[in-house]
Amino acid sequence: MIVAEDGFAVSGTLKFFDFPVDSGSIVSRGACPECGSPIVSRNSNMLGRVFVRVSSLDDSEIAKPQMMVYASRAPSWRPLDPALPAFPEMPPQAQKA
Cβ of 40: how many Cβ atoms within 10 Å? Predict the structure, then answer.
């Protein structure tokens, strides 16, 4: 789930790890320093946005999918929703939320 960084807050401390990704940007992944559960990511090419793991929310029903990225990597047992736009990899910058 992508949200505006200025409207997002985490209670507690996260431990961040930086990784280069396909686009050449750096993704910083924040996890719980105690158990390692992934919580949030930031992408150096998408400033002002935060990628929140829906599994980390108290109420995952607030998140409704609007597109699918990296659809080419979906497992065979996970059918894609034909009602949503799907991109085999990361969509062009103009189409990102």
Answer: 20
- 95: pLDDT strictly greater than 60: no
Residue 59 pLDDT > 70, yes or no? yes
Sheet holding 15-20, edge to edge: 2-4, 49-52, 38-43, 26-31, 15-20
Instruction: For the chain, report the end-to-end CA distance as a whole number of angstroms.
Output: 10
Three-state DSSP at 68 gives strand
The C-alpha torsion from 61 through 62 and 66 to 72, rounded to 10°, is -50
Token pair 């080419």 in the structure block, residue: 72
The predicted model scores a pTM of 0.72
Q: Catalogue the E-assigned strands of the chain.
A: 2-4, 15-20, 26-31, 38-43, 49-52
Q: Tokens 């108290």, residue?
A: 58
